[in-house]
């Protein structure tokens, strides 16, 4: 009878606890959030809306930017490609600063709001370059020269967008995922779906940006396109602001999130002559009851040298008060997490190279093909990128609602397959994409100069754009694997206080790839020019992009081999779950693969 009363009392307490979100979140008034009134999809939908708006702008501009630089500003292929990749690289490296500031100082919500305003400012500047007479480009029919003032203001607008992206992207992804409670089973599963639907929204933005926006740019004007994008961004930013009562806000850390990592490293170096105990339980840890703002992590055997930072030295009685001499197991494990993501981060750079070439060289390759579907309709080259978005939009719901439930039953994994396995599948698809692109380009180059006889007379034969459809389809499926997998990985596998920084690491890896893609073009151009005909000429018909693509196949194969080597030895983040009074979850550990 007494035991039954205890069980009933425990269930009542558990039910009461379930009403509240008992992690380190607060509501907009600084109180413990009520689960039913805050967070989950009703809050994250606002984040998805403003993120979609930002991505529509990005994809609409980036997808057709190389055409603008070559046609309006009259840059050659190599210069235009490099300028596009420098800008894209900036949009993916600046998040390192924005993510850090968002985590350490402003909070994620404020950073998203401020960055949205920067984004709107950049769009207004781009709009002005198309409507203000002194800022407008020169008429191409009259002169091949460019208005230098137009060029300066145009680039200022572009890099204002890059600054906005620097704060917006890492904080928007992490802030959206923050709306789901890791300690609640159903919400944790919903958060896994959130990353899929974030990819879906990005794909919708890619589809809209590379069809509607590109069509307006090509057949109406860039000014109208930029004005429409500014209006949409302003409206979604206002909507995001009015969602304030629904959000869950992570409490800002009491200290710089990078400081504990430095403390662990220094403490470990100070104790470098000590031997690690064979029993990890002898290492120092603060009880969970005294550590309300931080989830406790379990000890792992990787980077054993860092464990020395958690060794208690009896001769230093004041050691527990000095974090530069003694660190907890959780802080040691958080430092290990950061070191653990470095090899995975390195593999993202080559993903960035492939993505960069997909949105620049693939577009120029498309422009040199037969774009006509019928006598009256011609596809804008940049709109081929929309096929990628469409395929991802179709595949993501299938993966989330059909494939994942089946895989959960087969593997017993909450995610269906592990994060690294998902990324590995995506990297394999990148190899297939580059190989197919090389084969298509080889065939296209063989047709250059061939003539066919038609009713109108003799004309140059060109390869149909339809040949490029398979490579864009494979890219779309690959996005659902490697982009979603990388987002989830860099959110889950970093310390809880550094999740925007984690998203910034994901984006910066891609950014390094964009810069490396330009560097690779320069090297390839120099080397091939020295030994014969350059692979990167003034236009695609004079270039040998097929050989460049085969080079990318080889590099991607090496990248996949390195990734598999790391993945086979990888240890996932392990979190102590809260044990219950009835003895359930006796091991107290949750692995997050």
From TrEMBL:
Task: Tell me which UniProt keywords the record has, alphabetically.
Answer: Membrane, Transmembrane, Transmembrane helix
Spell out the GO cellular component terms annotated for this protein, sorted alphabetically and separated by semicolons. membrane
| Main location, first listed in the record | membrane
Per the UniProt record, one Pfam family is: PTR2
> DNA damage: is it a keyword of this entry?
no
Has keyword Membrane? yes
In which compartments does the protein localize? Membrane
Q: Name one GO molecular function term.
A: transmembrane transporter activity
Spell out where the chain crosses the membrane. 112-132, 152-173, 194-216, 222-244, 337-359, 379-399, 419-439, 465-483, 504-528, 548-568
- What membrane topology was assigned to this protein in its record? Multi-pass membrane protein
Q: Which InterPro entries match?
A: MFS_trans_sf, POT_fam
- What is the similarity comment for this entry? Belongs to the major facilitator superfamily. Proton-dependent oligopeptide transporter (POT/PTR) (TC 2.A.17) family.
Q: What is this protein called?
A: Protein NRT1/ PTR FAMILY 5.6-like
Give the source species: Vigna radiata var. radiata (Mung bean)
What is this protein's gene name? LOC106757012
